[in-house]
Amino acid sequence: MAGVRNDKQDAAGGGVRFPHLVAQERAADVLRRALRSGRLPHAYLFLGPEGAGKEAAAIGLARALLCDKYRDADAGGEAVLPCEECPGCAQSRRLTHPNLRILFPLPKPKEGGGEEIREEYSTAQQKRIDEVLAAKEQDPYTPLSVPGGQEILVEHIRALRREFRLTSFSGEWRVVLISQADRLRLQAANAFLKLLEEPPKGVLFLLTSSRESRLLPTIVSRCQTLRFPALSTERIAEELQARLDADRGTAELAARLARGSWRAATEWVRADPAAEIERAVEVLRILVKGDPGEMDVEVDRLASGPGEAFARLLVVLADWLRDVMRYEADPERYAHLGRSQVLVKFARHCAGRPFEQAIEAVDDARLDLERRVQPALVAHQLFFHLRRLLFAPMPAVG
Ligand SMILES: [Zn+2]
Predict the structure, then answer these.
(1) Is 109 or 70 the better-scoring residue by pLDDT?
(2) Range of the structural domain that residue 353 is part of
(3) What is the bridge-based pairing of β-strands 174-178 and 100-103?
(4) For all residues of the chain together, what is the average pLDDT?
(5) Ligand 1 centroid, distance to 16 Cα (angstroms)
(6) How far does the centroid of ligand 1 lie from the alpha carbon of residue 93, in Å?
(7) What CATH number did the domain enclosing 329 receive?
(8) Ligand 1 mean position to 338 CA, how many Å?
(9) Of 62, 64, 84, 171, most Cβ neighbours within 10 A?
């Protein structure tokens, strides 16, 4: 058969393949079986942490359903889906298939936007939206996020409802991907619930969320949920070497820092994790010395650089402090990990200090950055806390 990849799992699963989904074999099997049996629910809800592969799976499933061979044969028959040869596959690969809708949090259109919301976006905004979708086409792990995109707009849900009312099932599947379904705020969520209560025939809703607690229970109860757990560090390291040709050392470092997220792992591989660790250690050195002038220079440097660089530094810093804590707890065992002398020296220097609080301070700084607190303020506060927790003279006893 043309187009078949040499992949045991795909062959055994009866045709549907998820070439871009990393790990998550269990979820993929559930979806393969559902597609093959022809008994798909009206709506799936994919839950799991960011970067675990929810949207890679959703796009893979959508593409299989929208492949012309899925319609032609009975539930796809023996065909490999998506076949990558039919016109439907060409369109779904580019995420431009007319029966595929992708909704994600967008900025509010201007007042009086009316029916045609897209036209109300400024050229710059529309460009950003198109760029994000183009990046998603290249890598389904790319987050669908644009500046100012806070919620899924009720106008878009209403437009869907109108459309589904006006057109009847023609035998072709339609798939609606709702990315970050926890961003359906009240109005949009209610409009969407009406859709789910009377699900249009031949429409599959695919919802994704990494914030389960923020989902409306009424929405959750109408979806079939499927979980995408965080990936193991070992698996990420293996896949980085196999898929991205990363060398083993870099892959292992990136996998650790990624904390279960394939997306984060691919970003770390590109960012040179060893250099990032050097940089974090340099910041700690400056804090140990505690020279106010030097610390101010460092605050400026962090605040004026790209936001992602600061955020990455914080991830590395927290990871490094966790390592120090592990070393302190069990130096013997740690010796086998063969970590740097710098770390050992640092651990001795800060013995008995409240590392957990220091890690919390770093995590707080990361959240502040996400909330768009001024980077200079974040850096300044973080330095103050770390100095106090890790390096300031201990109060004299008695
Ligand atoms: Zn096809």
Answers:
(1) 70
(2) 272-391
(3) parallel
(4) 87
(5) 11
(6) 10
(7) 1.20.272
(8) 50
(9) 64
Q: Confirm whether 363 is domain-assigned.
A: yes
Reduce the secondary structure of 178-232 to three states and give it as a string.
ECCHHHCCHHHHHHHHHHHHCCCCCEEEEEEECCHHHCCHHHHCCCEEEECCCCC
pLDDT band with cut points at 50, 70 and 90 for residue 25: very high
Question: Of 227, 251, 286, which residue sits at a domain end?
Answer: 227
Going from the Cα of 244 to the center of ligand 1, the distance in angstroms, rounded, reads: 26
Q: Which residues surround ligand 1, an ion (CB under 5 A)?
A: 67, 82-83, 86, 89
Residues 293 and 223 in one domain: no
Q: What is the pLDDT of residue 278?
A: 87
Note whether residue 20 is domain-resident.
Answer: yes
Q: Are residues 209 and 307 in the same domain?
A: no
Q: What pLDDT sits at residue 23?
A: 96
**What is the Å distance from ligand 1's center to 249 Cα?**
39
In tens, the pLDDT along 179-205 reads 999 999 999 999 999 999 988 889 999
Whole-number Å distance, alpha carbon 11 to ligand 1 midpoint, is 16
Residue 124 phi, psi (nearest 5): -65, -45
User: Rounded to the nearest whole angstrom, what is the distance from the C-alpha of residue 44 to the centroid of ligand 1?
Assistant: 22
If you ran DSSP here, which 8-state letter would residue 314 be given? H
Q: How far is the CA of 12 from the centre of ligand 1 (A)?
A: 19
Q: Is residue 253 one of the residues assigned to a domain?
A: no
Residues 162 and 288 reside in one and the same domain: no
This prediction has a pTM of: 0.83
Q: How far is the CA of 65 from the centre of ligand 1 (A)?
A: 9
Q: How far is the CA of 7 from the centre of ligand 1 (A)?
A: 18
125 in the same domain as 33: yes
DSSP string, 250-287: HHHHHHHHHTT-HHHHHHHHHH-HHHHHHHHHHHHHHH
List the end-to-end C-alpha distance of the chain, in Å, as a whole number: 82
